[in-house]
Amino acid sequence: MTETVGKGGENKGAGRRAIPWLLLARLALGGIFIYSSADKILHPGDFARAVYNYQILPRALINLAAIALPWAELALGLCLVTGVWLPGAALFTNLLLWAFFAALLVNQVRGIDVHCGCFSSRPDPASPPPTAWYLVRDSVFLLLGGSVFFRVFLKPRAGKNASPAADGQTPPSEEQSPCLDG
């Protein structure tokens, strides 16, 4: 890709590469969340057993978590894919990813090998992967989620301190208040 240089010597090509990466990361993470919600929505009883096996939640919250969590995953996945409510979706997706990772880690430390229930609520008795595998896989998901979070929350703030012309925007006129950027 040929990079273009605008007035003032700023590099306009670097900003164009960031947008496709954010889009790809959003689509991948959103697709993962949508896919992971499907089996849990269709088989809430089996997912409730998977939640129970973690031995973290009190019994009174297991059914509520088994019913609400898959729908939350579906909603977050759709928001990530469509870009609707992106800041909230990025925040709550990362909170869920960290909660999932912590639950797996707690059980790994306790010596409990759980079927995570992430993509299928029914365990495969023939060859269930060890919890350590789920931790490695979820680490990749955390990196993906972290990159979406970084692009959504931290990159725009860095751009606010830069001059508007560096972002390809027109500088505000003297009549416009810089506080009206809403």
Overview of the molecule:
The protein is mostly helical. 66% of the residues lie in helices and 0% in strands. The chain contains 5 helices and no strands. α1 runs antiparallel to α3 (59-82) and α4 runs antiparallel to α5 (131-161). The longest helix has 31 residues, at 131-161. The radius of gyration is 21 Å and the shape is globular. The two termini are 34 Å apart. Mean pLDDT is 79; it is low at 1-6, 162-172 and 174-182.
Mean pLDDT: 79
Q: Termini, distance in Å?
A: 34 Å
**What gross morphology would you assign?**
globular
Proportion of β residues? under 5%
Total of DSSP H or I helical runs spanning 4+ residues: 5
Number of strands: 0
Give a quick account of the main beta sheet: strands, pairing sense, barrel closure.
none
Number of domains: 1
Q: What is the radius of gyration computed over CA atoms, rounded to a whole number of angstroms?
A: 21 Å
- Give, in order, the helices and strands: HHHHH
Low confidence ranges? 1-6, 162-172, 174-182
* Class by SSE composition: mainly alpha
Helix content: 55-70%
